[in-house]
């Protein structure tokens, strides 16, 4: 069962927020007003402010040149929610329902039959292969432009099952402030997510202010095809290209960014390897942080025993690597943009 | 034989130039002084100026928002030279010589034996597999940090066989001006090269002002490993990950950038697909250009009959797609930085 949930991450997925172009990056007097108003005063806020201040102060022994200010963020559970189901899986389920009329065979074929009945338990019972079938059916066999449109429509029309808010409002306000604060201080912000790279890119530029080329995720193979009338397209194939989870994250950081991050934020053991890769870098100070889901009232409290966002090794080794554990419950004044 | 040279591109490689951070991108009164001083007045210079002017003028029907100003450049033969041998192959050959003492078996084993003797003809006679062996021996079986250092040393100490200049001076001054001009007007400049992504990233940030995460190229697989004492590293494996040539280029653009370019520059049929992908995009004006190697005195004249930088389809279809053919001989005042 754990394996099933693991595949949720392995295959999946991600969603959004609200911000500014990723490229404004001069030191704009971050002191003048509080850059992190949704963070309570305390250890986490202070640690972030201290790190950014010391690494951007010319002449400081901890100074990091702007070109090397690379900050990586996991998405699900770090920048936006991931409960009760990783949001990209909701997209896949909704897609199956929407397209059911053109696929009569799905009425009798698992896992489509259970997906159409909204029976997640039965879907899960189909195992990794079942989930993979849902993902491939909803994410491949179409051009990249068709897929983008499909995600765009879903983002516009779907609602989170608990809050009834659009998914792009299920984002963590304190983390948006952090993204902005880092960018205002010359940091480049990247997403490094187990979620689908094509899925995130559709909405993340507007929601997080992160350009598509600074978004890294899992992907399927893509093929360049030119039709008989000479129109080229990129077709998404039902074959995994890259699984951007666990040890895949530092690999993806290398292949996409080509530099070792100095700042990394995650929330689960899927982020352990990229946190480790960040914190063991030489030459510059490094900052690793873990968003700890401790608020059962405003959000969901989960860690060691949760199949979604499983966090165990990260907690055990946090002191070894000096990772900051952010306590959502006590350290975040507000969680979502719609919170009071 | 043609196939052999093709593999030069397919497997390989690339090298360097000289410039500014990729992130200065506001409209800085490009009119005040000539942004392209090494370009003679004429059709190419005018076409570039016209395109940038109309796409950056707010209110113009041709206006392109800054977030969508994506410009892609091939490297070998487009930003720097590629004769008499793709530069990354020189790196591979030099590496074999440098490491020969630790590999006594190379003295008797092809293609290493011929590479050590500097006998390129015999190396070529070994075919694709032979070249692949040289590439894998010089590019894999080491950590990414070790590889970076190996490239850094080579860049510092090697010289181009004809000019006797460092390879990082074998760059086209007019193209550097073009990169700067585009960036000064809010364009993001990317390299999309058949050359090795890790090879280029070592020097291209300093030389072209292009950040590693805006450099795309061919790659081998990389593995994240943690040693017994807890030190993680990324190890380059002798297995091709991605071949960033021909139809691979639009695929790589999708996977890395996630947006369709509006401006693309190449010089060979290896760039045809990315030029086609660019020029058939909808909604915005598009600009495709081909650097045509016509100067046998200051550089090397080659196109349809050359195995290196083979250009045939691109010339045939240039008018169909309105691609600008840049005549190096008549349109470039100077080619290399060291030219008078």
Descriptive account of the structure:
- The longest helix of chain A has 14 residues, at 43-56.
- Chain A has two domains: 2-84 and 168-331, Rossmann fold (3-Layer(aba) Sandwich); 87-157, no CATH class.
- The first copy, chain A, is globular.
- Chain A has an eight-stranded mixed β-sheet with strand order 2-5-4-3-1-6-7-8, with helices on both faces.
- Chain A has 340 residues and is α/β, with parallel strands linked by helices.
- In chain A, 38% of the residues lie in helices and 15% in strands.
- In chain A, strand 6, helix 11 and strand 7 (287-292) form a beta-alpha-beta unit.
Essential attributes:
alpha/beta; 340 residues; 15% strand; homodimer; 2 domains; Rossmann fold
Q: What is the CATH C-level name of the largest domain in chain A? A: Alpha Beta
**Shape category of chain A:** globular
Helices of chain A, by number, come to: 14
E-strand count of chain A: 8
Look at the structure and give the mean pLDDT of chain A: 91
What class would the helix/strand composition of chain A place it in?
Answer: alpha/beta
Percent range for β-strand residues of chain A: 15-25%
Evaluate the radius of gyration of chain A. Answer: 20 Å
Strand order of the largest sheet of chain A: 2-5-4-3-1-6-7-8
What is the quaternary state of this protein? homodimer
**CATH structural fold name of the largest domain in chain A:** Rossmann fold
Number of domains of chain A: 2
Give the H and E element order of chain A. Answer: HHEHHHHEHHEHEEHEHEHHEH
Q: So, CATH architecture of the largest domain in chain A?
A: 3-Layer(aba) Sandwich
What kind of sheet is the major sheet of chain A? 8 strands, mixed
Helix % of chain A is 25-40%
The biggest chain-chain interface is: A-B, 41 and 41 residues
């Amino acid at each position: 069962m754990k394996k099933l949930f693991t595949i949720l991450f392995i295959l999946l997925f991600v969603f959004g927020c609200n911000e500014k172009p990723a490229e404004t990056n001069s030191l704009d007097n971050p002191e003048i007003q509080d850059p992190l108003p949704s963070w309570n005063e305390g250890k986490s806020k202070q640690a972030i402010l201290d790190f950014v201040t010391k690494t951007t102060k010319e002449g400081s022994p901890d100074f990091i040149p702007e070109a090397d200010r690379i900050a990586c963020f996991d998405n699900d559970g770090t920048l936006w929610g991931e409960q009760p189901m990783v949001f990209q899986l909701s997209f896949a389920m909704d897609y199956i329902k929407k397209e059911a009329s053109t696929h009569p065979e799905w009425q009798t074929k698992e896992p489509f039959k259970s997906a159409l009945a909204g029976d997640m338990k039965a879907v899960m019972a189909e195992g990794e292969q079942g989930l993979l079938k849902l993902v491939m059916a909803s994410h491949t066999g179409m051009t990249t432009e068709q897929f983008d449109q499909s995600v765009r429509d879903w983002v516009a029309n779907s609602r989170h099952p608990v809050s009834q808010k659009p998914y792009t409002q299920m984002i963590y306000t304190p983390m948006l402030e952090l993204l902005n604060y880092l960018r205002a201080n010359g940091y480049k912000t990247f997403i490094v997510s187990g979620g689908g790279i094509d899925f995130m890119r559709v909405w993340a530029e507007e929601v997080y202010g992160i350009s598509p080329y600074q978004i890294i995720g899992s992907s399927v193979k893509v093929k360049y095809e030119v039709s008989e009338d000479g129109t080229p397209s990129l077709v998404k194939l039902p074959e995994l290209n890259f699984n951007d989870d666990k040890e895949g994250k530092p690999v993806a950081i290398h292949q996409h960014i080509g530099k070792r991050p100095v700042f990394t934020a995650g929330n689960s053991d899927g982020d352990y390897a990229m946190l480790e890769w960040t914190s063991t870098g030489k030459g510059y100070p490094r900052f690793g942080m873990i968003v700890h889901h401790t608020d059962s009232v405003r959000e969901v409290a989960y860690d060691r025993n949760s199949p979604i966002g499983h966090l165990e090794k990260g907690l055990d080794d946090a002191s070894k690597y000096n990772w900051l554990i952010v306590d959502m419950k006590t350290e975040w004044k507000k969680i979502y943009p719609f919170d009071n």
